[in-house]
């Protein structure tokens, strides 16, 4: 486990995959490891997975109200992952942290509630798994423009595809106004 210095309360859990001629085995969730950093493993209520192709960009997404904490892992392929701290009371407010998550090494990123999250697929196929601590409520969805100049995120590839919601996302300033309402 590694603390993410750019984002207060964020962690990167790096397991040890066991590989042999058959492939590999890796424990991707361990309640005791979460407890060791003060996280409640029982708080996670929903698992989801997305499949993306190279260049697809998803995000930046967060939830208004109480927010949403999540565990994010690339289970197949590789992704460029981004977290933006949007908690006004955080010592790392407005910091950006980037990671490369890979299905080969299976790291899991803990994204605290109140942080925006997004990623871009770096490989032909990239499967991304999420474990979320609250049921999804679309009425609380907030999206921020992936290319907001204030954030200056260094996306590694041109965005080849994204949802309409992500393409039409407002600036950071406008999204923060919605998040607070």
UniProtKB/TrEMBL annotation:
UniProt cross-references to SUPFAM superfamilies, sorted A to Z: RmlC-like cupins (SSF51182)
InterPro entries found in the cross-reference section: RmlC-like (IPR000888), RmlC-like_jellyroll (IPR014710), RmlC_Cupin_sf (IPR011051)
Stored Gene3D superfamilies: Jelly Rolls
Keywords linked to the UniProt accession: Isomerase
Pfam family, any one: dTDP_sugar_isom
This protein's record includes keyword Isomerase: yes
Chain spans, region Disordered: 157-181
CDD domains from the UniProt entry: cupin_RmlC
Domain of life of the source: Bacteria
PANTHER family: DTDP-6-DEOXY-D-GLUCOSE-3,5 EPIMERASE (PTHR21047), THYMIDINE DIPHOSPHO-4-KETO-RHAMNOSE 3,5-EPIMERASE (PTHR21047:SF2)
Protein family membership: Belongs to the dTDP-4-dehydrorhamnose 3,5-epimerase family.
Entry protein name: dTDP-4-dehydrorhamnose 3,5-epimerase
């Amino acid at each position: 486990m590694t603390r993410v210095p750019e984002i207060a309360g964020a962690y990167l859990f790096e397991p040890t995959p066991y590989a042999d001629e058959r492939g590999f085995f890796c424990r991707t969730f361990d309640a005791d490891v979460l407890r060791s950093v003060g996280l409640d493993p029982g708080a996670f209520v929903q698992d989801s997975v997305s499949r993306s192709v190279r260049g697809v960009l998803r995000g930046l997404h967060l939830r208004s109200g109480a927010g949403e904490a999540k565990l994010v892992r690339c289970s197949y392929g590789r992704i460029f992952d981004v977290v933006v701290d949007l908690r006004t009371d955080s010592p790392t407010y407005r910091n950006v942290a980037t990671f490369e998550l890979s299905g080969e090494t299976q790291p899991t990123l803990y994204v605290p509630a109140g942080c925006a999250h997004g990623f871009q697929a770096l490989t032909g196929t990239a499967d991304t798994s999420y474990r979320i601590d609250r049921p999804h409520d679309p009425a609380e969805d907030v999206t921020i423009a992936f290319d907001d100049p204030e954030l200056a995120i260094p996306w590694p590839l041109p965005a080849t595809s994204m949802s309409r919601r992500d393409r039409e996302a407002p600036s950071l300033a406008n999204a923060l106004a919605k998040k607070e309402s």
